[in-house]
Amino acid sequence: MDLSACFLAGDSAGGNIAHHVAQRWTSTPPPPSDNPVHLAGVILLEPYFGGEERTKAERALEGVAPVVNIRRSDRWWRAFLPEGADRNHPAAHVTGDAGPEPELQEAFPPAMVVVGGLDPLQDWDRRYAGMLRQKGKVVRVVEFPEAIHAFYFFPELAGDIRKLVDEIRAFVEDSIMSKQSMA
Questions:
Q1: Which of 19, 89, 93, 149 is catalytic?
Q2: In the chain, how many domains are there?
């Protein structure tokens, strides 16, 4: 098995987890030179980030978006975050504009961030991509203007699902080619 180009991927809360795993993986001391594992990229499908601020999209899509709404989101954050923490906790709010500046090591891999135009979390996802760019990271943002949160679970949205698979494939291939050209 070739572990020289591994990718982390996650959707929704899994996207949040993929970010934190990549951050932790790249901030630990480098593995021995004979370790074959190399993190080549991270794929975040509508990652579940948040904060105390109510973004424009959260307010505009309240009562309209079928999967994510403010009430549910607040309940999920209360269940997930440490007792006494608010939504500006670094596990939720990863961009640093309401808390500690996130540390991303040079080894943090290229990222693909998928944003749904009808997802209340879209503003957080775009901020995340912006933060990566500000830190000099390679980031590919893929927008689906008519997509709700977790649109890829709905077979009736097959056109978008095919496009998503094509975008993921292209990101993986580009990341591997880039890694090979640097070697």
A1: 149
A2: 1
Which of 26, 55, 54 lies closest to 40 in space, CA to CA? 26
Q: What span, in angstroms and rounded, lies between the C-alpha atoms of 170 and 64?
A: 32
Whether residue 149 lies in the annotated active site: yes
Record the pTM: 0.93
Across the chain, which distance is largest between two alpha carbons, in Å? 53
Q: Is residue 2, in this structure, part of any structural domain at all?
A: no
Q: Evaluate whether residue 173 is within a structural domain.
A: yes
Angle 120-86-56 (CA atoms, 0-180°, nearest 5)? 25
Q: The domain containing residue 154 runs over which residues? A: 22-28+40-182
Q: How many CA atoms lie within 13 A of 162 on its CB side?
A: 4
Q: Which amino acid, 8?
A: L
Tell me the pLDDT tens digit for each residue of 4-60: 899 999 999 999 999 999 999 998 887 667 778 889 999 999 999 999 999 999 999
Distance CA 157, CA 162 (A): 9
> Which member of 19, 89, 93, 119 is catalytic?
119
Whether 119 is catalytic: yes
Whether 139 maps to a domain, the answer reads yes
The residue whose two tokens read 């699902």 is 161
Q: What is the CATH number of the domain that holds 156?
A: 3.40.50.1820
User: Annotated catalytic residue: which of 11, 12, 123, 175?
Assistant: 12
